[in-house]
Design a protein that fits this description.
The complex is a heterodimer of chains A (107) and B (116). Chain A is mostly beta strands and 107 residues long. Chain A is 0% helix and 50% strand. Chain A contains no helices and eleven strands. In chain A, the strands form two sheets. In chain A, strands 2, 4, 5, 6, 9, 10 and 11 form a seven-stranded mixed sheet that branches. In chain A, strands 1-3-8-7 form a four-stranded antiparallel sheet, with no helix packed on it. In chain A, a hairpin with a 6-residue loop joins strand 4 and strand 5. With 116 residues, chain B is mainly β. In chain B, 0% of the residues lie in helices and 54% in strands. In chain B, a hairpin with a 1-residue loop joins strand 9 and strand 10. Classes of the chains: A mainly beta (107), B mainly beta (116). Chains A and B meet through strand 5 and strand 10 of A and strand 5, strand 9 and strand 10 of B.
């Protein structure tokens, strides 16, 4: 199974700041990586797919990058509505696996 | 507009069975793989099952293999999850998700509580 190691587990940042969340796969996943945002009490929403493609309707302040085993999600100009948990997921191979999540708060 | 609406959750005793349903609309259901993903209270996301467009191929993690069965009815645009021999560790919110590589649309989730 491919293990996804996500960091940090929690993050506190100020409005307008730029934050980065990392995900490391235990083997090459060939950009088969997605990032999801989950607001409290809501279902997850897709932000990024194929490591760096923005899903329809997602603000351009979100971006994804990486390759091989190392991937990251960057949020520019942090807004109050970005308070949420963020999860990475590899879909290169079964079983599909998720990172443990990053809880983002506003300082 | 893509919509996925789950139903069938509830409280069930350990060892018993429960069947979840997911009604899809706003897209051609038969063209997409579909999946179930769960989230235990205050925990992360865990993939539970995937089914191919025709239903001929299914995939499960070891944690549910042999106990859970995913199925679909393309004529009714519906996805199902039959859960047998339920355990307390199956307690979670279960989400239905459309697959296009990643899970691009999710339902609102349905809660399953396994407890005596």
């Amino acid at each position: 199974d491919i293990q996804m190691t996500q960091s940090p587990a929690s993050l506190s940042a100020s409005l307008g700041e730029t934050v980065t969340i990392e995900c490391r796969a235990s083997e090459d996943i060939y950009n088969g990586l997605a990032w999801y945002q989950q607001k409290p009490g809501k279902s997850p929403q897709l932000l990024i797919y194929n490591a760096n493609s923005l899903h329809t309707g997602v603000p351009s302040r979100f971006s994804g990058s990486g390759s091989g085993t190392q991937y990251s999600l960057k949020i520019n100009s942090l807004q109050s509505e970005d308070v949420a948990s963020y999860f990475c997921q590899q879909y290169y191979n079964y079983p599909l696996t998720f990172g443990s999540g990053t809880k983002l708060e506003i300082k | 507009e893509v919509q996925l609406v789950e139903s069938g959750g509830g409280l069930v005793q350990p060892g018993r069975s429960l069947k979840l349903s997911c009604a899809a609309s706003g897209f051609t259901f038969s063209n997409y793989y579909m999946a179930w993903v769960r989230q235990a209270p205050k925990k992360g996301l865990e993939w539970v099952a995937t089914i191919s467009t025709s239903g001929s191929r299914t995939y499960y993690p070891d944690s549910v293999k042999g106990r859970f069965t995913i199925s679909r009815d393309n004529a009714k645009s519906s996805l199902y999850l039959q859960m047998n021999s339920l355990k307390s560790e199956d307690t979670a919110t279960y989400y239905c998700a459309r697959l296009a590589g990643s899970s691009d649309y999710w339902g609102q989730g349905v809660m399953v509580t396994v407890s005596s």
